Amino acid sequence: MPEVLKAPLVVEFPFTRSLGPVQSAFLTGLRERVVLGVRTTDGRTLVPPVEYDPVTADEIRDLVEVAPTGTVTTWAWNHEPRRGQPLGTPFAWVLVKLDGADTALLHALDAPGPDAVRTGMRVRVRWATERSGAITDIACFEPYDGAPGELTGHDGRFGDMVTGIVAPARLDYVYSPGRAQSAYIASLSERRTVGERCPSCRKVYVPPKGACPTCGVATSEQVEVGPRGTVTTYCIVNIKAKNLDIEVPYVYAHIALDGAGLALHGRIGGIPYDEVRMGLRVEPVWSEGGRHPDHYRPTGEPDADYETYKEML
Amino acid sequence: MRTVRDIAVVAFGQTDHRRTSDELSEVEMLLPVLHDVLDRTGLQTSDIGFTCSGSTDYLAGRAFSFTMALDGVGAWPPISESHVEMDGAWALYEAWTKLLTGDADTALVYAYGKSSPGSVRDVLTRQLDPYYVAPLWPDSVALAALQAQALIDAGETDELALASVAARSRSSATANSHAQLRGSVPQGDYLVRPLRTGDCPPIGDGAAAVILAAGDRARELCERPAWIRGIDHRIEAHSLGVRDLTDSPSTRLAAERAGAFERPVDTAELHAPFTSQEVVLRKALRLDDSVRINPSGGALAANPVMAAGLIRIGEAAARVHRGESDRALAHATSGPCLQQNLVAVLEGDAR
Q: Which of A106, A129, A150, A226 is found 20 to 30 A from B333 (Cα to Cα)?
C-alpha cells in the first residue's frame, strides 16, 4: 500500500451579492453610523432588518432608527479568535438587543475577560474607522453604562446607497485522493499507467476511482494499460488558456490506452493540428520531472479500426 | 398521521466513525456501507427503485463529490436518483415521499461526510446568512455556546448538568462499536465558554445507509420492519436574534405532525451535537426519564456531519428490528442552534 498522498487545497471566492431595499438601507446606514431597523406587521422592530416579515412573510419596508446602544441577551467567551472573526484578541460573542429594537443582533464584544461579561450588561457600538456598507462597519461592541444613545433622526434615505456587498470566503483543506487514485498517481511517478478492473463486468477503469459505476462494486485488481493508445475523438482548441504556455490551435483528445475500458484525455502534439483524426495511434511524451504525460504524439502505426474503439467514444 | 402506504426502514448500516480517513476517497468510504444494507436485505443495486443521498461538497472541498459518490451505487444505466445538500435524514424524507406516490417500492438512502480535510467549524459558517452573519465568521461552537448560555441564564441547565449529558452519552456509546468517542471522556477546558470540549461532538468522517420499503415488500425484506408512523420537518426564522434559543417550536411542531405525542415512545435518538441542545430537545419533545435517550451515544459520540441525522433514524430503526424498541422517536437537525428539525416515529409490529 503506497503512502497516503496529501496536498493543500484552497477554495476561495469573492461572493458578490446584491441587496434588497431594506438590507441596502441598513448597510448604508452603518456606513453613515446610523442603525436602522424595520417595523413588522405586528409593530415589532427587527434589527438587523429583513425584507420580509419572519412571521407573516409580508413585504416590510417601514424603516425606523434605533440607538447604537443596547443590552446583551446572551454571550459566549471566545478565548481563541479564528480567522475572519471581528477581533484578533479574545472577545465575547454577543447577541445585543439595541435600544428601540425587539430582536437581537449578533456581533463581537471587546471586553477584558469573561468575568467582565454578563447577560443584561449594557454595550454600545464601536464603529470601524473605515466603513464601506457592511456588517463589519460595526467593529464590535464595547461595555457602556449610560442611557440609550441618541438618535440621528435619519429616515433611511441616503445619497449613494450601497447596492451590493463583496463577501470574500476562503476555506483551507488538506486533500487526499483515496486508495485507488493514490495508487494511480504513485504509478504515474514511475511513468506507468495503472487502472483497476471491475470484478463483475471486467471493465478496466483509468484513472481508477475505486468503484465501478455500472455495477456499484469496489474495484481492486490493478491492471497496467498503454503506454500506447488510440484517439477516439478530439477537438481543436483555439483559445489560449490563462497560465498555459501552449501555442494555439492545438488538439485535445480522448485517448483509449491499450487495455483500458474507457478513454482519458490529453493533448496531441508532434503532428499538425489539422491532421489529427479518430483512430490515430499515439504514445505518451513525458517531460523531465513531469508527474503525468505532457502530451501524446503519433506512433506511426496504421490507424486503429473504428470497430476497436467505438464503444469508448 | 395516516398515509396511503405503510413504509418502513428495513435495513441500516454505518461505517466506523473516525477522526480521519485519509486512505479512502468518499466513494471508497461509502461502498462497504451500501453493500452492508444491500446484503442485509438480499437486494441488488438494480432492484432499488429510488436512490437519494445527502452530503455537502464544502466539507471536504471537493466539487461535485456527490456525483462521484454515485459510482458506488451502480448509477449506470441511469437510475432514478436525487441528492439533497442536507443531512441524509432529509434525503430519507424525500425517499419516503417518493415511495408514498407509489412510483417505487424500495429506496436506498445514504449520507456521508468527511470533515477531516477541512476545518468544520469554519466550513459551517458558510451556511449562515451571507449579509449580516457569515462575514463575522461565527463558528459552529460559538453559536452553540450562545444557546448554552441562554439556557443557563434561563435556569434550564448548568455546566454540571451539561457534563452529565456528555458522560451519559459516551458511556452509552461503549456498546456502539462504530462510535468515535466512547467511555470516560474528560469534560476538558472551555472551547467557547460555557461549552467545554466534552460538550462538543467529536470531529470525524463517516457514512451511513438505510433501505426503505413499502407494504408487503418491507415484510419480505425484514423480519421486523421499523414502520414510519409519521415524519415531518419544520424550520425556524434564520436570524438567531429573532428566535428564543432556549426553546425549539419547530421540533415540537414536527413531532406533533409526526404523531409523536399520541402515545409514549420507549426510545429516542436525538441529533444533539452539543450537550445543551439535548436540553432543548427533551423539553420540546416532552421526553421524561422513562424514555431511553440516545442508547447509541448520539452525536456526542460520533458526528459525521451530513450523516449524523440519518444515523439517528437508522439507530432507532435498528432497535425496532432487534426487538429492543416497539415505538421509537428519531430526530435530526440542520443549521445553527437547532434551526431546522425533523422528527420521525418508528414502530415495530406487535410481538
A: A106
